[in-house]
Fold each of these.
Amino acid sequence: MNANISLDQAIRKIPDFPKPGILFYDITGILVNPPAFRECIDRMVEMYEHSHIDAIAAIESRGFVFAAPFAERMGIPLILIRKKGKLPGQTYGCKYNLEYGTAELEVHRADVKAGERILVMDDLIATGGTLNAARNVLEQGGATVSGFFGVVGLPFLNYQAVLGEIPVRTLIEYHGE
Ligand code: AMP
């Protein structure tokens, strides 16, 4: 079976959430489907196992779910990028625009090593604003973002323009809302 057919079936599409006009791609349907979840992690490892990545950074909270098994399989550190006010230590922070609303992300300063090549991951890439804010906080610590990954990509929202030259990879793309 085409891998994307099974992934597509596992992703619930919820119209008008969290506000009218947004089609919400809900990855919780992947998490309750062990073959689909395993397929995601297997394909992520296949994509990156020959790349030079020193660490994976993931966005709270759905990004964590995919990044944790990936980090364990790759044998690399997992850096948590969290919403403002959640991390207890000293942080770097960045405000950014969401597809719906605004927010602020933080990372522990101690978790970012200057010179490291970091892959940044979230469950879904829409406008790219969240991943770009993640790049900002990692660069404040002297790291380099070597790639961006989303389980789901919405390229019609032009995230590549926001994310510039850094390669973006996804497992499945949707072309409308
Ligand atoms: P963006 O910063 O615009 O790329 O938005 C990406 C973030 O918002 C991710 O953390 C997603 O989980 C969430 N998000 C944005 N749009 C959607 C959508 N249509 N369906 C599900 N999640 C979304």
Amino acid sequence: MSVNKALLLLIEDDPQFQMLLSTTLENQGYQIVTATTGKEGLIVVRNQQPNLIVLDLGLPDIDGQEVIRSLRKWSEIPIIVLSARHQENEITQALDNGADDYLTKPFSTAVLISRIKALLRRVTKIPGGSQEYFQVGEIKIELTKRLVLVGEREVSLTPIEFKLLSILIRHAGFVVTHRQLLEQVWGASYIEHSHYLRIYMGHLRHKLEADPARPKYLLTEAGVGYRLQDGG
Ligand code: CA
């Protein structure tokens, strides 16, 4: 699949906003197909097999969450959700249901375009997902050797810190929710213990960031989770 020829499905019930987004994305060379309800969106996915979905969570018929849940039963298509501001619960739920990323309205179309590009790149790049070596900016991690470097400097991490960093770096550029991190690092019975995350993210920032108070890589997504950003 050529990234530029990718077919994007836009599920959005606001006609003006849909028009604006369609035009912007078409100008980037993408092919666009649109739906204004959740049910219509699900039909379009089956019939036209788009490469990525931009999904508004507030739809007139079925809830955006329902759209994600029913898609994830049979499809791994990348999904970016759009949400109104200050709806952190909605966003977290959408990500836990299987959405890949989110934007809150109003957002810059430049950011939307870069998120779309990143997701399409990820889909084309990692067929088996069995990569052993990751690099984000100055941070390098070798999973089998359990080796972490910042530039040339080797950094010693505890097992928990290493596990946390390896999850974030596998999802580099994308948000990972509190629940996903707690579940994968500590286990399902720890999903309420988000203070663990704050403590261990603090440790990681002290070990990996030049200025832990103003992190360049380990970013907080308020109320939602964390994102390891390529600080380069
Ligand atoms: Ca809407």
